[in-house]
């Protein structure tokens, strides 16, 4: 091999290595910006490991492919925004992906802000006696990544990312991820609403459904419907709503019944969660619109007895 060929192959490797690392950076950005606690993404390396560049032929091509596979399989050394790498003694072909700067919600600024990557540490790689962990031939690493809001530059947020092979999971956050609650959701129940969304986002749909049902129950109770059975109180609430409202908008009884049926059968339907929360949002948005048009729209008024017996209790 001539010196020229050798240097061509070297720069081809550098380019490929940067491309592989770029795929990790891209997956990290998706994980950090779009996914919630315990959700995951898979790094898409495509066929990068299988396609040697034209400058690498025969034996060199084989070597190139092997280096790509080893780089993907072996420990990675994430670099923070200073370009600082922590791991010493990493194989010369080891991947060194850059941690991306990301857009996160800043609790202090109360809006989405640019956060810069400050530090990246491989928590399992700190053990010098045993710097490499594998399960089922998949490298396991746990990275602690810190980010600083570029607007308030307050206290960095730390996100834990676990790597199993090519899979990255958001495994922890300090502080807890911000979960917005729509303005229309009334104060007495907005913490139940937030807990419902957090549970759902963490994949705990059944507890999420339970908390959504709590939103309905506690809202109705806060409206002074004190019937012993929750289903009776919810029916009394429904009957207290203006007729126009009842004709057009969800009145929470059906939502309550659907949630109860799922909870009692311990199903935990994500589809039901999305549908129920949409209808609950619609109920409260409509209440606000009605109140804007007529401040007394929901003033207590005498209710006529129900023409039908209350439906069987869901709880
Ligand atoms: Zn901020």
Topology:
Layout: H1 3-34, E1 40-42, H2 59-73, E2 102-106, E3 111-122, E4 133-135, E5 138-149, E6 157-164, E7 167-174, H3 187-201, H4 205-222, H5 230-240, H6 243-248, H7 253-264, H8 270-293
Antiparallel strand pairs: 1-7, 2-3, 3-5, 4-5, 5-6, 6-7
Strand fraction band? 15-25%
The helix/strand class is alpha+beta
Largest sheet: 7 strands, antiparallel
Average pLDDT metric: 89
* Number of beta-strand segments: 7
Domain module tally: 2
* Cofactors, ions and other ligands in the entry: zinc ion
Low-confidence stretches: none
Distance between the termini: 79 Å
Radius of gyration, whole Å: 27 Å
- Number of helical segments? 8
> What is the 3D form?
elongated
H/E element sequence: HEHEEEEEEHHHHHH
Key attributes of the depicted protein:
7-stranded antiparallel β-sheet; 7 strands; binds zinc ion; alpha+beta; 315 residues
Q: What does this protein structure show overall?
A:
With 315 residues, this protein is an alpha+beta fold. The chain is 42% helix and 16% strand. It contains eight helices and seven strands; from the N terminus they run H-E-H-E-E-E-E-E-E-H-H-H-H-H-H. It has helices at 3-34, 59-73, 187-201, 205-222, 230-240, 243-248, 253-264, 270-293; strands at 40-42, 102-106, 111-122, 133-135, 138-149, 157-164, 167-174. The longest helix is centred in the first third of the chain and has 32 residues, at 3-34. It is elongated and about 95 Å long. The chain binds zinc ion. Residues 106, 108-109, 113, 149, 151-152, 154 line the site of zinc ion (ZN).
